[in-house]
Amino acid sequence: MKKPIIYITRKVPEDLIKPHEDKFDVRMWEKAEEPVPREVLMEETRLADGLLCMLSEKIDEELFLASPNLKVVSNLAVGYDNIDVEAAQEHQIVVTNTPDVLTETTADLGFALLMATARRVVEANDYIKNNKWKNWAPYLLAGADIHHKTIGIVGMGRIGEAVARRATGFGMSILYHNRTRKPDAERELGATYTSFDELLTEADFIVSVVPLTDETHKIFNEEAFAKMKDSAIFINISRGATVDEAALVQALQTKQIQAAGLDVFEQEPISAEHPLMKLDNVVCLPHIGSASTETRTEMIELCLDNISRVINGEVAKTPVSS
């Protein structure tokens, strides 16, 4: 009997695939750091029963129409704005993601980015590497304190709450804005619910953890940056398109805000010639929020488990809905 086919759009460790090889014909794009070309993706999914994809792949109506055997699309991420979920449902294709397993790791990275930006860690490292350190001075590369400041978290989901837990260890006041109030977070973390505008004006650190939707697209725009303190530091670990990057560049160049730490961008990857990369008051990372070895391994295992379950007629562990 012919085995069901699973296609993986990026090279993953062979030892993660081995447990599934008895039941499935597992195929994958053989490059770990280069996205699968669209034409290869279309050809490979034509016969596939399950698809494990990355955020870099556009999974849409065209692909579904060309993939009559496809039963499940498993996205290696929490967000799934790269997938047309409504079209998938129309074709009776299950879409899954990887919530929970990356929450703490992404929050670690978010807080690391906040700290690196506030204390000018990357700039200070480059200062020595470029042989600029000649003498000690009282305000040499002086940054901003983090302890006992006010953090404003926009998007109080799992990752937002995990960031807030870390903030409590620094004695920070926690403001948050979310579609719905989170009484548990307010009670357990001492977080205070505010309007978006109030958060922008009051917070010393503004952290974006919102999903990308029509409502959040470029929510951080010229008007939003104008409301922030001139000492404010903006951190984005959500999606690049939640930010109007031209407005952010302007706010940073004019010192309307103090600094920014970014793990995501409107167009990825960005080049070294991007205006943000020319600024000393920005720390940029290549979308590595969940990139610990342990977490990425657990994410891949969850994706494969979801695919296996659906193909075998079982309910997926972490399905998403439109």
Automatic annotation (TrEMBL):
Q: Which residues form the D-isomer specific 2-hydroxyacid dehydrogenase catalytic domain?
A: 7-320
The domain of life for this entry's organism is Bacteria
Q: Where is the D-isomer specific 2-hydroxyacid dehydrogenase NAD-binding domain?
A: 111-289
Record key words, sorted? Oxidoreductase
* SUPFAM superfamilies (alphabetical): Formate/glycerate dehydrogenase catalytic domain-like, NAD(P)-binding Rossmann-fold domains
Database matches in CDD domains = GDH
Q: Which GO terms describe its molecular function?
A: glyoxylate reductase (NADPH) activity; hydroxypyruvate reductase [NAD(P)H] activity; NAD binding
According to the UniProt record, one GO cellular component term is:
cytosol
Query: Which InterPro entries does the record associate with it?
Result: D-isomer_2-hydroxyacid_DH, D-isomer_2_OHA_DH_cat_dom, D-isomer_DH_CS1, D-isomer_DH_NAD-bd, NAD(P)-bd_dom_sf
Entry keyword annotation includes Nucleotide-binding: no
Family statement drawn from the similarity comment of this UniProt entry = Belongs to the D-isomer specific 2-hydroxyacid dehydrogenase family.
Checking PANTHER family in the record gives: 2-HYDROXYACID DEHYDROGENASE-RELATED, GLYOXYLATE_HYDROXYPYRUVATE REDUCTASE B
Name of this chain's protein: D-glycerate dehydrogenase
| Organism whose genome encodes this protein | Oceanobacillus bengalensis
